[in-house]
Amino acid sequence: MKQTILLLLVFSLSLTTYSQDIEKMDKKELRIALKNSFSSKDSLISISRNRDKELALLNQNLIVNKDSIKAQKIKIASLLTSNRRNDESIKTLSKSISVLQDSILKLKMITSFVVSTFTLKALPKHCSMVYSETKELYQSKKFICYWGEFEYDNSLNININDEKNVLERIDTDNETDDYIYQNDKYRVRIGKRKSIFENDIISIIESAELSIKNLATGQEIIKKIYGEGGC
To answer: Alpha-carbon distance 198 to 201, whole Å?
Structure first.
């Protein structure tokens, strides 16, 4: 009986010790698990914070990029507007230049005119007179006008601004013996005629004065001329 009680007591003590060891072992594992949980939590918090920082940086970069894109769009729009204005200015300037060139051309044609020289393959065979500015130019066959040829003395041929003009004889001043010719642009007077040599009417050499009047503007130029002719 005593032995049985002793054995029960020993067994009971053994169970208590074993239970305590198991309890101690569970707490240790729990502490390890809890420690590991805290470590995992800290790790997750750290990862979360890093991600938040990355998201914040990305968001900041996005805002900066948006602002940059907006600024670039504004700059591009400004450049396009400037280009359109430049194109309009160029067109306006081109039109102004064209108008100015036309005005200059018209002004030249209106305010000035030049008697151009020309040559003749052969002198007129009929009653006529051929004129140059000087005897030397006449001998060099650089003529400025002539009347006669087949039309006798009814028309005058003269080059003005490199353009051939044929003027019909409209009058003769009986007092001065001036010849007057005219077309729709000019009136020409050959006056102050002075004979240098005359052999009846077969051969005539004379000096004279050539007056050309622009009918549109009233401008007039006068030249001394030298002529030879006859019938």
So the answer is: 7
pTM of the model: 0.49
Between CA 46 and CA 154 the distance in angstroms is 117
Say if residues 133 and 179 touch (Cβ distance below 8 Å): no
Q: How far, in Å, CA of 20 to CA of 209, rounded?
A: 152
E strand or H helix that includes residue 220? strand 220-230
Region for residue 27 given its phi and psi (left: phi exceeds 0; alpha: psi -120 to 50; beta: otherwise): alpha
Give the Cα separation of 180 and 116 in Å (integer): 20
Label residue 208 exposed, middle or buried (CB < 10 Å: 0-12, 13-18, 19+). Answer: buried
Q: List the pLDDT tens digit at each of the 231 positions of the chain.
A: 545 555 555 555 555 554 555 455 455 665 675 566 666 666 767 777 777 777 778 777 778 777 788 888 888 888 888 888 888 888 888 888 888 877 776 665 555 677 888 888 777 767 788 899 999 999 998 999 888 755 455 788 898 888 888 888 887 766 767 888 999 999 999 888 888 776 665 678 888 999 999 888 888 889 999 988 877
Q: Which tokens in the block code for residue 15?
A: 């169970």
Amino acid at 86: N
Q: What are phi and psi of 219, to 5 degrees?
A: -65, 145
Determine phi and psi for 144, rounding to 5 degrees: -115, -25
Instruction: Name the token pair of 117.
Output: 């020289």
3-state secondary structure of 149: helix
Fill in the DSSP letter of residue 57: H
